[in-house]
Amino acid sequence: MEPLFDFEAPAEAAELAVEYREGGLPPVTIGETYTSPSGVRYKLIHKLGHGSYATVWLASLVDGGGNALRQFQALKFQKAMVPNKGQERVVLAHLSRPSKHPGRNYVLRLMDHFSIRTVNGVHEVMVTPVLGPALHQIAEFCWDESVRRSGLPPLVLKRLTSDLLQALDYLKTRGVVHADIYPGNMAATIPGLNGKSEDEVMQLYGPPEAEVVKCFNESKLSAIGHSVPEVIYEPASLLETIVYNGNIIADFSLQLIDSGQAFIYDGVPLPR
């Protein structure tokens, strides 16, 4: 069978180039600026990660002249076609409502949202606070001397378990079922970036690393080339700010993320 795309995925840690097609990922890239209906302007300055249905980017808030405002958010760009489109935004908005429940501090909040149109379709964009690496990534780079194996130290694990239980209790009070709880959907908080310059933030994350997407079949390039970005970036890592030489060197809490499979359990279909 002839492959759908004759593109090489250049970076092992990045998404596959084949994900950029009609109904797939939007071909966004660093340096682009997007404006939400609220008038907030977001300039993409780094890539934070990717998943089955989206890519996540670090954005610097800028004014109308393109001047940095020393504020930073994460932008999640979804595929044009995703299961239960719009559901994650509805759930996040529901969970982001004001509450005195302590568990709200351990659940990702929706700060803003909008949609963009690209050659691959209409994509929903969700704006959230910037978080650090996932729990399983941190555990992989930790060394627990007491049992001589990789993994989170018992005291840290105990504290993070408490964070997770409070988050789940908060979801229960809101009538939400997450439906996809595992260490990859638990991210570490990081020290606030707001107030820093873009240069200072880039020193923290390191320069973006990318490779040019290679096309093996030039005859197809004119037909599908605009669907695929010219370069694919590898996600940035902040592991070094949390783990050094196998040891936890920074305090952090947990946030439950990725509500793509979550639903509000009230017997009524989610509003669109």
Task: Describe this entry's structure for a reader.
By secondary structure, the chain is an alpha+beta fold. 19% of the residues lie in helices and 28% in strands. The chain has five helices and 18 strands. Strands 2-3-4-5-7-6 form a six-stranded antiparallel sheet. Strands 1-13 form a two-stranded antiparallel sheet. The chain has a two-stranded antiparallel sheet with strand order 8-9. The protein is globular and about 55 Å long. The two termini are 38 Å apart. The model is unreliable at 1-6 (pLDDT under 50).
Can you lay out the helices and strands and say which pair or pack?
Layout lengths: L6 E2 L24 E3 L5 E10 L3 E9 L5 E11 L8 H9 L16 E7 L2 E8 L6 H7 L1 E2 L4 E2 L3 H20 L2 E2 L8 E3 L9 H8 L4 E3 L1 E2 L2 H7 L6 E3 L9 E2 L2 E2 L5 E3 L6 E2 L8
Antiparallel strand pairs: 1-13, 2-3, 3-4, 4-5, 5-7, 6-7, 8-9, 10-18, 11-17, 12-14, 15-16
